[in-house]
Design brief:
The protein is an alpha/beta fold. It contains ten helices and eleven strands. Bound molecules: NADPH dihydro-nicotinamide-adenine-dinucleotide phosphate. InterPro entries: Aminoacid_DH-like_N_sf, NAD(P)-bd_dom_sf, THF_DH/CycHdrlase, THF_DH/CycHdrlase_cat_dom, THF_DH/CycHdrlase_CS, THF_DH/CycHdrlase_NAD-bd_dom.
Length: 294
């Protein structure tokens, strides 16, 4: 069997176009475009790339992008003051503080200071709690995008056994909550899990969010299973001095057994930014007292 490739890049492009198409009616009703504020502290190169692509995607969708670049030595209080100002700014619907923050800043304190109604990353404990109890929440972008790809590939997920590898607050845990909401039977695996290959072999859906290059092997996959590879790992490339990106799943091996699989790059990655725009549009509608744009 050769797996169907789940084209996250194409799906994300479609989603972004649908979101952009909804912006004009929001502008008509409220007199302003939805606004996303992105805060970057310091000069981490990967973070700079992410912030640039978030800005570009926001503008392309017809939304307002507010970028705040602060020096690495910014104090925690100065960052909290900026977050408070963005909370109070009516033109800002979404606030994203790019992680990781410099070590002298307590990221939990900063995330806790964001108004949950503007928490488009979905990392605030209020949104995590709402997701856990099934109330209206802003849901973290990477698991939300992964769920959309799964629903597009499989339709109704109810009754399927999903194994989520990874239990981080930003991917693994919210992914498991979303799959549970869809009535999957959910197993969450992590670094202490015994017989991981044996557990993954039971899965109709495998979501790998580990951060270990090509850890999940082809003989772990049940024939026909759907594999969502969240991992992004930079490894040495074929040519000396060159690097390439690989996922947490050994792609060729897994694709030979799975029914469908996301590639890396071009799978889950593009969905993360598309879902950030989706959350910004949703937050803008909710803040304006309008019904959700879906
Ligand atoms: P974390 O490092 O926060 O979490 C990794 C998880 O994997 C932990 O729960 C850890 O278990 C588990 N783990 C580590 N080693 C093993 C192992 N040998 N067997 C089983 N489980 C293991 O990572 P994130 O959740 O933030 O990210 C995961 C991956 O997803 C990374 O590659 C990251 O780059 C990528 N990512 C991709 C995004 C995208 O847009 N596509 C967005 C966000 C992340 P334990 O809790 O026991 O330590």
């Amino acid at each position: 069997m050769t797996a169907r490739i789940i084209d996250g890049k194409a799906f994300a492009a479609g989603l972004r176009a649908r979101l952009a198409a909804r912006v004009p009616s929001f502008v008509e009703k409220t007199g302003r475009a939805p606004g996303l504020a992105v805060v970057l502290v310091g000069e981490d190169p990967a973070s700079q790339v992410y912030v640039r692509s978030k800005h570009k995607a926001t503008v392309e969708a017809g939304m307002q992008s507010f970028e705040h670049r602060l020096p690495a030595e910014t104090s925690q209080q100065a960052l909290l003051d900026l977050v408070a100002a963005l909370n109070a700014d009516d033109s800002v619907d979404g606030i994203l503080v790019q992680l990781p923050l410099p070590p002298h800043i307590d990221d939990k304190a900063v995330l806790a200071a964001i108004d949950p109604a503007k928490d488009v990353d979905g990392f605030h404990v209020v949104n995590a709690g709402r997701l856990a109890v099934g109330e209206e929440a802003l849901v973290p972008c990477t698991p939300l995008g992964s769920l959309m790809l799964l629903q597009d590939a499989l339709g109704d997920l109810s009754g399927l056994h999903a194994v989520v590898i990874g239990r981080s607050n930003i991917v693994g845990k919210p992914m498991a909550q979303l799959l549970l909401q869809q009535s999957c039977t959910v197993t969450i695996a992590h670094s202490r899990t015994k017989d991981l290959p044996g557990i993954v072999r039971l899965a109709d859906i495998v979501v790998a969010a580990v951060g270990r290059a090509e850890m999940v092997r082809g003989d772990w996959i049940k024939p026909g299973a759907t594999v969502i590879d969240v991992g992004i790992n930079r490894v040495p490339g074929a040519e000396p001095g060159k690097t390439k990106l690989v996922g947490d799943c050994a792609y060729d091996e897994c694709a030979a057994v799975a029914g469908a699989i996301t590639p890396v790059p071009g799978g889950v990655g593009p969905m993360t930014i598309a879902c950030l725009l989706r959350n910004t549009l949703v937050a803008a509608h909710r803040r304006a007292g309008l019904s959700d744009p879906e």
